[in-house]
Write a structure and sequence with these properties.
Elements lengths: L1 E5 L17 E4 L9 H14 L3 E3 L10 H7 L8 E3 L2 E6 L2 E2 L8 E2 L1 H8 L9 E4 L20 H10 L3 E3 L8 E5 L2 E5 L8 E7 L5 E7 L3
Parallel strand pairs: 1-2, 2-3, 5-8, 6-7, 8-9, 9-11
Antiparallel strand pairs: 1-12, 4-5, 10-11, 12-13
Length: 214
């Protein structure tokens, strides 16, 4: 299966049409920058026109109420394991608390509670807007790690093959945290930054970072 992963769109959807074809698209949040539910709906409809099969979570810059948009359009990636085309997925939108008090933030105990029932080997892919703490995908320009400790603890305990995140635009890259590949494609932007994931049945994922408009 081929999966395209994008994150941190912030209303810039021009490059969506230039993305490659895939069986599934995953979106890691920040459809908007402080946008309304209607703004999120407009972004969802644009992505769905390209990828009828897409699932996503909100970012910290999206209104929490916009979860209802993802739910009613059938594109919401739940925070409980969900099977899609033979792979097991889980999503967590928003991000751990920051000094900026953005609209969709949570404290670490909330994420810990959501993840508490997960068992080792129960997930193939987790999509969390917030990157795991000290994964490399969470380092801001100063070098400080600002990711979620709850997400990092889940990765180390449950060991999904892939953790797809975003949030920290400058930390784009492919990293490893214990046995898990951690992928932050960076801000989608005008060039359409994305992760290209190939998953062969019974095998392990291969991941590349690319731009839609090269």
């Amino acid at each position: 299966m081929r999966i395209i992963y994008i994150s941190d769109i912030h209303g810039n959807l021009d490059a969506v049409k230039a993305l490659p074809e895939a069986e599934l698209c995953l979106v890691g949040g920040d459809f908007t920058t402080l946008g309304t539910d209607d703004d999120v709906l407009a972004a969802v409809e644009t992505i769905a026109a390209k990828y009828p099969a897409f699932l996503g979570v909100l970012g910290n810059m999206d209104a929490p109420t916009a979860n209802s948009v993802l739910e009613r359009t059938g594109h919401f990636l739940k925070s409980t394991p969900t099977s899609v085309q033979g792979l097991r997925f889980l999503g967590l939108g928003g991000a751990n608390c920051s000094p900026f008090n953005t609209p969709n933030e949570w404290d670490e105990s909330t994420a810990e509670e959501l993840f508490s029932g997960l068992q080792k080997g129960e997930l193939d892919i987790a999509v969390t807007h917030a990157p795991p703490f000290e994964s490399g995908a969470d380092r801001i320009g100063s070098g400080l790690a600002v990711g979620s400790k709850a997400v990092a603890d889940m990765v180390k305990r449950v060991k999904p093959a892939l953790l797809l995140c975003g949030h920290i635009h400058e930390a784009a890259g492919i990293f490893r945290l214990d046995e898990t590949l951690v992928v932050n494609p960076g801000q989608f932007g005008a060039e359409g930054h994305y992760a290209d994931i190939r998953w062969e049945e019974g095998g392990k994922p291969s991941v590349w970072l690319a731009t839609a408009k090269e």
